[in-house]
Amino acid sequence: MADDELNQNQNPEGEEPEPSQALRITELEGLVAQRDEELTKANARITELEQAVAESEEKLTTSQNSLTEAVAGYKAMVVQANPEVLEELITGDTIESINESLKKSKTLISRVRQGLEAEISGAKIPAGAPQRTPPDLSALSPREKIQYAIGGKK
Q1: What is the mean pLDDT of each run of 10 residues along the chain (154 residues)?
Q2: Which of 62, 64, 71, 77 is nearest to 92 (CA)?
Q3: What is the pTM of this model?
């Protein structure tokens, strides 16, 4: 039955299409032309957006490179401004992580300093020479004591 309908809709050669079919064909051709125009506009918009994305990616890359250089410069300034902190203790790829590592490093240095000060204060050595005390003669025999007193040698 579908073949019969197709055969009825097709015009035999040499015959003009019916006015309703001609109108329908014209209408469909207009819709095709309209779709082609919309498709061309959409393709142009896609091209514009692709260019915008490429420009944005280039700007992003430039910004990332600038940020990396700025962070490296900041890290160098932090190292230079804090000579008491070892450069190896200051790490990070962002300003926040550099600040955090600096804070941790200063805390560590403070703890080490306190430990050293406590150790030094516990082992205080008096300044200057020790007091002069007479030699201990209690271990000497009476004869050695007499010899010591007269300044003689054994």
Answers
A1: 46 63 91 95 96 96 95 94 90 93 94 89 74 82 88 66
A2: 71
A3: 0.53
